[in-house]
């Protein structure tokens, strides 16, 4: 019997060879590439035993921080730019389709179905506003019946899952069905910029690298329609702090919108909001799925 020992010069090859009988070809390809890059990284930085132990302890703590309403591994992926890279690779779209961005770590509970025009701000923390738009196909056709999932932080910069017992459940979340013209509208509050949870290992990593934990103000949107590729995106508030330094690298210029002051009694009546009112408008363009 010949024993092939693992040495510094052949480490990746030995481990990759051990994967040769993996029946799932995609799993074999992913693991093989991971091993090659991971071993290359270890050699590139001359990783010490102490650093290896600290890395294992860090990842262990990241796992311990995860629960039903917090995903520390998603935060880690976000702040290292991996989430945005995966998003970019998996969302190569037409030039007319709405840009995508990260899902974020706070889509941890299902948004409740709500009627068009409903007020999703159950705690009334923040400046009232209307969020409205139209879902269209990339050829301009309105997509009646499109589903629009919306969630956001309140005017103090917190999501409902961050303040259980203080915010009502499913606060600032809603699942809407667009009308026959693909239009949707709802009442909410102007969101505020906020820090991602930084009381755990990911926060300490940001501090160690002199990075802030903040995200600019935004509203999350997932839009879907039959026969079309769904879009997961954000609407960023124009002039919000941190647009140029989002800690999860999620900002795209095409997704920035102003908060407009509207003085129009008829429109205010339509939206069932006091006049004048704040308005954020955002149309969503979906690519048709081809067989």
TrEMBL record:
Q: Any one Gene Ontology biological process term?
A: catechol-containing compound metabolic process
Q: InterPro entries recorded for this chain?
A: Catechol_dOase_N, Intradiol_dOase_C, Intradiol_dOase_core, Intradiol_RC_Dioxygenase
- State a single Gene Ontology molecular function: catechol 1,2-dioxygenase activity
Q: Which cofactor does it need?
A: Fe(3+)
* Protein name (database record): 6-chlorohydroxyquinol-1,2-dioxygenase
Q: Which organism is it from?
A: Mycolicibacterium goodii (Mycobacterium goodii)
Q: Source organism's superkingdom?
A: Bacteria
Q: Which residues form the Intradiol ring-cleavage dioxygenases domain?
A: 131-159
Of which family is this protein a member?
Belongs to the intradiol ring-cleavage dioxygenase family.
Q: Which UniProt keywords apply?
A: Dioxygenase, Iron, Metal-binding, Oxidoreductase
């Amino acid at each position: 019997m010949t024993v092939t020992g693992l040495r510094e010069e052949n480490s990746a090859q030995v481990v990759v060879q051990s994967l040769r009988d993996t029946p799932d070809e995609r799993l074999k390809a992913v693991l093989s590439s991971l091993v090659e890059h991971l071993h290359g990284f270890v050699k590139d930085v001359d990783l010490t035993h102490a650093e290896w132990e600290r890395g294992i302890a860090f990842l262990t703590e990241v796992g311990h921080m995860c629960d039903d309403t917090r995903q520390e591994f998603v935060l880690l992926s976000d702040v290292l730019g991996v989430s945005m890279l995966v998003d970019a690779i998996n969302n190569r779209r037409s030039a007319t389709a709405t840009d995508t961005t990260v899902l974020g770590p706070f889509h941890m509970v299902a948004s409740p179905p709500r009627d068009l025009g409903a007020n999703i701000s159950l705690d009334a923390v923040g400046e009232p506003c209307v969020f409205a738009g139209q879902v269209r196909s990339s050829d301009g056709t309105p997509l009646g019946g499109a589903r629009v999932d919306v969630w956001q932080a309140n005017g103090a910069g917190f999501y409902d899952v961050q303040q259980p017992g203080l915010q009502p459940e499913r606060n600032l979340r809603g699942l809407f069905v667009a009308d026959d013209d693909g239009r949707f509208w709802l009442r909410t509050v102007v969101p505020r910029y906020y820090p991602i949870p930084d009381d755990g290992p990911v926060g300490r990593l940001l501090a160690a690298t002199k990075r802030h934990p903040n995200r600019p103000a935004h509203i999350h949107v997932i839009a879907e329609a039959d026969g079309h590729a769904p879009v997961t995106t954000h609407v960023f508030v124009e002039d919000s702090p941190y647009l140029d330094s989002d800690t999860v690298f999620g900002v795209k210029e095409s997704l920035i919108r102003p908060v407009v002051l509207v003085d129009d009694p008829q429109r205010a009546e339509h939206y069932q909001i006091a006049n004048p009112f704040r308005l954020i408008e955002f149309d969503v363009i979906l690519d048709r799925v081809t067989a």
